[in-house]
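Anyone? Bumping this.
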Amino acid sequence: MNSETDADSYPSRISMITLSGDSYIRLALETFLATPLVHLLSGLDDDKPIIPQEGARLARVSGYTEWLSTTAPIITLGWDWELDVSQGQPLYVRLGSPRSNIMLVDAMAHDLGPTKTSMLLETAIDALAWQKETHQYIVTRYA
Amino acid sequence: MQVMSGAPEGLPQGLYSKLARYRHNVFVEQLGWELQTQDGTELDQFDRPDTVYVVAQDDEGHVFGCARLLPTTRPYLLGEVFPLLLNGLPPPCSSDVWELSRFAAVDLNNQTSALGQFSSPVAIELLQESIACAAAHGAKRLIAVSVIGVERLLRRAGFHAHRAGPPMVIDGHPILACWIEID
């Protein structure tokens, strides 16, 4: 049956990570979500960094963080963040849209476009546990 | 802010030398990049007679911003020095692709730091001028070799940009290559 053939071929199609001539890595959202990312580096925006410490009164603290896949070609994903101190315990919160070489595609391998890709990546980032590693790196880097 | 652009021969007398000293101050003295220097100036093999510069000056003629534009049909920084930033792809070579490098927007007289430079409106204006200048030379796309701050600036300024590869820490400085589409 055709439907079985399609179903059989679909997993191999979405699992491909390919680098296009325009430098985009085209992949399905499912493939991206199944690809582990590792922390590369993070930094603060401020010229004179303020190290977030428990109990300290914080001015606005913001920065960026960079994550990579261990695949070849490499998926790169970076985003801005700020510390939200409104709830007492400082919380790292993503700011704005991510920067990457990712173009998400649908089941037919058609581009979803930069806007939809960005929106889906934002949701994916917010589901990642990136805050702790970012905080540890920041504290070490600016100690 | 006054923005001048052109090849060295087309720039007002003395501006090229001021630009070279400005780049030394920003990239070597403030950012600590290990670059080719001579007598307090920073120029390399890509600063040629055909290189196009965009230079921002204040009313008193002090340089407070710059960018360098190179056609990818001739040797350029990414292709010659940093091809590893392209994630395995060959460096572009096309008359409608230009490279943007050595972008800075540091006001040395007002104590703008090199670290905080990319948050200023001046930086956005200089970036817009640089992209317009490249377009005027036939560019339809730019490939930028830059620190992460420039890429963040591009995004904030509303440009359509995406990465050509992951950032790499080179001599202690994270840099990357990113594409800028000229609409």
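Late reply, but here is one note on the structure posted above: The mean pLDDT of chain B is 92.
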